[in-house]
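User: Some background: our group keeps a shared notebook of sequences we're curious about, and every so often someone picks one and asks for a predicted structure to add to the entry. Today it's my turn. The entry only has the sequence so far, pasted here. Could you supply the structure so I can complete it?
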Amino acid sequence: MKAIQYTKKVSTNILRLIYSTCTNDLVINSKQASVIEDFFLAFCIEFNRLFIADSLLMNVLQKHCIVKAKTYIDHTKSICRDNFLEDRNAFLEFFGSNENYSILNKMRLFEKTNN
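Assistant: Of course. Here's the predicted structure to add to the notebook entry:
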């Protein structure tokens, strides 16, 4: 339901942006042959007034971006942790096996004989 409300609000604001840009004094009172530069300037002014000044919409966008960034960071952390655990387990399995040529096994035997 919130998605429908936000979509309705954004679409209403877009229609207001187009209407306010077309009825802006810069566009109406333009003396130039090409009105496109004045149209872009009026568009930027009205965009700033409608969207950037609308703190509710900006708060929603900021929260959405923060949540997306947090989930991405958490996902990356979990992948790194899983890779580290796999690498550590493979390392310990390779060097800690009970065979005679195992480095850790020889180190343990060396420590036992020195005590």
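Suggested note for the entry: Helices lie at 2-22, 25-28, 36-52, 55-95, 103-114. The mean pLDDT is 75.
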